[in-house]
Here is the input.
Amino acid sequence: MSTMVVEIHVPLLPTPDLPDGSYPFPWIEEVEDLLSDLEDRGDVEVFDEGEEDGDVYVFFVTGASQVDLLAVASRVATLPGVPAGTVAVVSDDEAEEFGLG
Here is the structure.
């Protein structure tokens, strides 16, 4: 039986106006911190490590209802510094590619 996974696809865009030499995607760590906090509270499970896929960075959450997982995706999309254009894809752990399932 497959497990529902919500993929959170964030455009891989650098944060504007960062000091020279700064990591261009500080929002990745902020999202990971949020997801880790939610996991520690037992609200969701981080299904897999986030990873770059072309022009997006994908985070994976599971362990809650679809409504709750989509609410997490909404929180991620509205974090300060997260690029506009973030989308959530409802998938499962048997999907062969991102965005399918």
